[in-house]
Amino acid sequence: xxxxxxxxxxxxxxxxxxxxxxxxxxxxxxxxxxxxxxxxxxxxxxxxxxxxxxxxxxxxxxxxxxxxxxxxxxxxxxxxxxxxxxxxxxxxxxxxxxxxxxxxxxxxxxxxxxxxxxxxxxxxxxxxxxxxxxxxxxxxxxxxxxxxxxxxxxxxxxxxxxxxxxxxxxxxxxxxxxxxxxxxxxxxxxxxxxxxxxxxxxxxxxxxxxxxxxxxxxxxxxxxxxxxxxxxxxxxxxxxxxxxxxxxxxxxxxxxxxxxxxxxxxxxxxxxxxxxxxxxxxxxxxxxxxxxxxxxxxxxxxxxxx
Amino acid sequence: xxxxxxxxxxxxxxxxxxxxxxxxxxxxxxxxxxxxxxxxxxxxxxxxxxxxxxxxxxxxxxxxxxxxxxxxxxxxxxxxxxxxxxxxxxxxxxxxxxxxxxxxxxxxxxxxxxxxxxxxxxxxxxxxxxxxxxxxxxxxxxxxxxxxxxxxxxxxxxxxxxxxxxxxxxxxxxxxxxxxxxxxxxxxxxxxxxxxxxxxxxxxxxxxxxxxxxxxxxxxxxxxxxxxxxxxxxxxxxxxxxxxxxxxxxxxxxxxxxxxxxxxxxxxxxxxxxxxxxxxxxxxxxxxxxxxxxxxxxxxxxxxxxxxxxxxxxxxxxxxxxxxxxxxxxxxx
Amino acid sequence: xxxxxxxxxxxxxxxxxxxxxxxxxxxxxxxxxxxxxxxxxxxxxxxxxxxxxxxxxxxxxxxxxxxxxxxxxxxxxxxxxxxxxxxxxxxxxxxxxxxxxxxxxxxxxxxxxxxxxxxxxxxxxxxxxxxxxxxxxxxxxxxxxxxxxxxxxxxxxxxxxxxxxxxxxxxxxxxxxxxxxxxxxxxxxxxxxxxxxxxxxxxxxxxxxxxxxxxxxxxxxxxxxxxxxxxxxxxxxxxxxxxxxxxxxxxxxxxxxxxxxxxxxxxxxxxxxxxxxxxxxxxxxxxxxxxxxx
Lengths: 306, 333, 294
Prior knowledge:
The complex is a heterotrimer. By secondary structure, chain A is mostly helical. In chain A, 76% of the residues lie in helices and 0% in strands. Chain A has two domains: 62 residues, no CATH class; 226 residues, MetI-like fold (Orthogonal Bundle). By secondary structure, chain B is α/β, with parallel strands linked by helices. The mean pLDDT of chain B is 86. The radius of gyration of chain C is 23 Å and the shape is elongated. Chains B and C meet through helix 1 of B and helix 1 of C.
């Protein structure tokens, strides 16, 4: 199944170009369109051969880690992508830790007294946050930070790599991680809250109470795990979406991750880079979902038995 | 009437649920007491409030939308009005409950061993190995074969009867003085029912516990309890020694219940008598006797005025009825 | 089964007898939200006829002006009226979301229902294909296609986003239908010899519809956000046509001089989304659809 999906994705990423109207060579070369490049492209991709042969040539290259060489920047596509991936991973890890750290205890508080004052407040807050898209959040945050702190608006903080200065690195990732974390938090909080409320109604929770163990222990040891299947499923999809959807945050804050690279490649009409990123992200999303499916099976033994 | 001190004293206990359709009086004005080492039965149709009564005695009712009044003194501890944190001290160690449905009362994502030894580790402070050893002992006690292996399985891997044994083992883990068994065998096959009940009897003797056995099945309580409470619409309608209730019952409802359950002494294929009508709407209880609408002996007074419990001929035997059945000592049992 | 297992039993017994079922109320806030959305949609439809200033008219004598009587929300860096640009800009959001979800639901929903009802080979084949598409991140695919499919137009966006939403709709509807198709009353209808169309139309559709509607509202909110993001990347409608997304994008370079240009379209967009989310949530609790099902 996993292999099948990967085949479909590679075919999709490969075929993308042929779905578009016009000469593939012109699209691929984009602004780097010159007779010499065109000849090189034809030789590299075998564009004069039948389409299935082209696919095999392309696949063979990919399996050797060769995603082609950009005709715009003249650097191998894989090199470009490779340097961007750690940034995405870092953003993902930080934002997810923040999101879970906030969502789990707050969802528990809410579920303890559904429709109580705290629950109402949190629900209203989560609604408002749910309705603020990331790009607006960033524009407004930048606006207020710039105005309130009196900092001259020089544009968003620029990225500092982890290797060179880890404090500077964390500082430069603070705003994007925060925005991404808030987006994830809202989703996790809502999903977990509703499942926790349902779980707390279960008879086995009453039985746990009858043992005389603390409320806290009941929440963490008895209620959380059976309530987290939907949460984990959502997180799998959400993290996959983050890989792809974090692009706007990266673009606005000049964080040179995959999203940023993708958008600049689009700006230069650098087709091969776009294709490479689509492929990498799609495979990443699948792997993440696969991992989460695996975790869900461990967390809830009922699922694997069914 | 007894030399042993009373373990449990319940006085005028009422439990009212706050529902969208108005207050629902699930238990109203119930008083009784229970001695050490005694087994008492509470019987009634489904919806008669017996389960709610058992939970309220333990203080295990839902935290919100419930009003409890009256008094429950358990070993001198006042359960009514106590907070969860206060009640946590007695739960599990002084009083424990065997839940009705073994399919829903065990945590499906927790290994059964963990569910049993949780109380040992958290409440009794045993270390992991001691707790595990004790949990395996308990599994053996309730008759689960190869307990050391079963310690590691999830509830979903066990049959209903096995799960109910796990529920019982969990309830016994804290060696409580009072065990509330809420329909412990309802969800099980008839053959397993007897096994579980015998097991309970045996353990009760061995561990010197008091047991309240809640059931709708008179056959279950007939030979195992010393006293019986008959409930209808949240109230006690008759209470006394098991023999008095079976033989000298005065309340027509008790007779209706007895007529509705099969007896060994009857010839086979005897038609069981069903109680006409339906249990009353607890949201709109009639002002008089709750059973009056279904009672063939009901008079005007029954519909207007609620009868209080009054003593019968034998000490300790009480009933609530305006037109009690005549005493018929020695009739069919 | 519940902790209040016995309570439910009692309440059920007590209520099924005499008390008529209480009608659940949606609340005032719900209707305010519906009203706000209706106002937006009407504004978008009748933008041409309304006494609004020309959203494209550039008046260089009053650029970057704050709110005033003449320009309710002020003007942008080219002296265009922000209020009228917001009203006209709502057209893009509404057209894209409705158009693409029409495609998504038009194809995804019937396929999902049929697959869940028929099961067998038809279902497993279709589901496999759909899940493969699902693995392909919709946003990335949309961006990739739109960036190379020039010239850009609203219709192309609608088509691409619509197609990308098909597998999502398919999955939700299929799962919902399957949950209901295994219920006793559907099986009873089958046993009684009801035709497939009758079961689909009479038994399944009315029960799947609430979940579909809830998902539709979430979908609209998602597509509106997506259009905003695309506008940010310059992949949505071409300027000078206003859309909420490209207005916010244009404001970024002059945030300091004219914060209103960022604030008002953001507010319009967020309020619209807030109403959609709120309505969706109320309907979900009304129809008792849990969050995890979507």
